[in-house]
């Protein structure tokens, strides 16, 4: 039996801070509204010349160093993103070229904010089927490149960032690693969170740009209602697949979209503040990067002791949702 284990983790956020007070100068909003409705106080924004693959690279270098391996030692580079440097080729191909002189498989996984969860599920399947020994799973989004900073309903929510994990094969049942994954999608909600322009349905034109169709559009209320149901379902289904229950949770690391969505899950599962990792106040919603950022922070704060049962759960555009259940520990 082959076990999929974690050997390295890294994360990255750009330096520039955009505070709620900065946003008050840009759109008709205020700090009180943003904090009370979302829990967000500030977010990080990439510079104009900093790309999604640049951020993925910084996080990946840290993850590889943490694992004690070189880029050449990987078999596969997966990148979860919704804001690829270019529509094609993939951000993963660009990242692969920077990490390794040796060619290897590379592709993007696009599944809204659930993308990193999807990509980890892919990596686990590649490793457990013995197709791969070592997979880098990066997550990077530069949402500031598709946010309309004149639209107060979305401008206040999003930030930029990246994370990366190295997953490897180990023989035997083992004591740590990825225990289970759960993925789901319901495309009937496709228009609730969408970048309408620039794809094959509405190719870029003067009209699409004038109409702002290249910006992200979200029906916030509907997505909120979906999220408060989808995240708990993802947690319970992931645990069920691992033969566990919510009583076994040591830590929940939810997608950092909104403090109220996180708190609803915390209450539903009777988890304490200590058991739920939150950093949405400092980074806003960094899409695919939000869970690896929170996981890496919790690790550096010394909160995740080896053997802890950690559930990662996300939801996002698609609509998609899913979870990863991990027995924490670095098996280097
Ligand atoms: O990872 C992607 C997943 N996305 C999400 O998780 C987002 C889920 N949705 C949400 O988090 C919330 O729906 C929002 C934070 C986006 C909005 O919160 P809400 O409590 O659902 O507010 P609302 O959209 O119902 O708007 C309430 C009021 C409206 O004014 P009226 O019509 O009541 O006069 C909005 O125009 O708040 C107004 N409003 C704002 N006011 C000040 C909306 N955005 C702002 C703003 N500042 N930034």
From TrEMBL:
Report any one BP term from Gene Ontology. fatty acid biosynthetic process
Residue ranges of region ACP-binding?
256-260
What does the record give under GO molecular function?
A: 3-oxoacyl-[acyl-carrier-protein] synthase activity; beta-ketoacyl-acyl-carrier-protein synthase III activity
Give, as one word, the top-level EC class.
Answer: transferase
Main site of residence? Answer: cytoplasm
Q: Which GO terms describe its cellular component?
A: cytoplasm
Q: Which reaction does it catalyse?
A: malonyl-[ACP] + acetyl-CoA + H(+) = 3-oxobutanoyl-[ACP] + CO2 + CoA; 2-methylpropanoyl-CoA + malonyl-[ACP] + H(+) = 4-methyl-3-oxopentanoyl-[ACP] + CO2 + CoA; 3-methylbutanoyl-CoA + malonyl-[ACP] + H(+) = 5-methyl-3-oxohexanoyl-[ACP] + CO2 + CoA; (2S)-2-methylbutanoyl-CoA + malonyl-[ACP] + H(+) = (4S)-4-methyl-3-oxohexanoyl-[ACP] + CO2 + CoA
Q: Which residues form the Beta-ketoacyl-[acyl-carrier-protein] synthase III N-terminal domain?
A: 107-187
The protein's UniProt keywords, in alphabetical order, are: Acyltransferase, Cytoplasm, Fatty acid biosynthesis, Fatty acid metabolism, Lipid biosynthesis, Lipid metabolism, Membrane, Multifunctional enzyme, Transferase, Transmembrane, Transmembrane helix
The subcellular localization recorded is: Cytoplasm
Q: Which residues cross the membrane?
A: 304-326
**HAMAP family associated with the record:** FabH (MF_01815)
Per the entry, what this protein does is: Catalyzes the condensation reaction of fatty acid synthesis by the addition to an acyl acceptor of two carbons from malonyl-ACP. Catalyzes the first condensation reaction which initiates fatty acid synthesis and may therefore play a role in governing the total rate of fatty acid production. Possesses both acetoacetyl-ACP synthase and acetyl transacylase activities. Its substrate specificity determines the biosynthesis of branched-chain and/or straight-chain of fatty acids.
Q: What is this protein called?
A: Beta-ketoacyl-[acyl-carrier-protein] synthase III
Gene field: fabH
């Amino acid at each position: 039996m082959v076990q999929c284990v974690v050997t390295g983790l890294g994360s990255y956020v750009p330096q520039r801070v955009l505070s709620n007070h900065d946003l008050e100068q840009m759109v008709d909003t205020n700090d009180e509204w943003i904090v009370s409705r979302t829990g967000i106080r500030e977010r990080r924004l990439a510079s104009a010349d900093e790309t999604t693959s640049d951020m993925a690279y910084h996080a990946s270098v840290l993850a590889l160093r943490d694992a004690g391996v070189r880029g050449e030692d990987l078999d596969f580079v997966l990148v979860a993103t919704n804001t690829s440097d270019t529509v094609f080729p993939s951000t993963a191909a660009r990242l692969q070229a920077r990490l390794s002189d040796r060619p290897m498989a590379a592709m993007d996984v696009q599944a809204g904010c659930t993308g990193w969860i999807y990509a980890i599920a892919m990596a686990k399947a590649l490793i457990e089927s013995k197709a791969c020994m070592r997979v880098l799973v990066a997550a990077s989004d530069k949402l500031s490149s598709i946010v309309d900073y004149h639209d107060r309903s979305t401008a206040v929510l999003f930030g930029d960032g990246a994370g990366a994990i190295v997953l490897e094969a180990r023989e035997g049942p083992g004591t740590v690693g990825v225990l289970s994954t759960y993925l789901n999608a319901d495309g009937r909600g496709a228009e609730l969170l969408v970048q309408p322009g620039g794809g094959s349905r509405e190719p870029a034109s003067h009209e699409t740009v004038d109409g702002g169709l290249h910006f992200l559009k979200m029906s916030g209320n509907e997505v909120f209602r979906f999220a408060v149901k989808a995240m708990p379902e993802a947690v319970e289904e992931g645990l069920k697949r691992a033969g566990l229950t919510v009583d076994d949770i040591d830590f929940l690391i939810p997608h950092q979209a909104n403090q109220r969505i996180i708190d609803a899950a915390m209450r539903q599962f009777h988890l304490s503040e200590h058991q739920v990792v939150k950093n949405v106040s400092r980074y806003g919603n960094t899409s695919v990067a939000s869970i690896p950022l929170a996981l890496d922070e919790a690790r550096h704060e010394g909160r995740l002791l080896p053997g802890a049962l950690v559930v990662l759960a996300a939801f996002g555009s698609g609509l998609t949702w899913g979870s990863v259940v991990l027995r924490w520990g670095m098996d280097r």
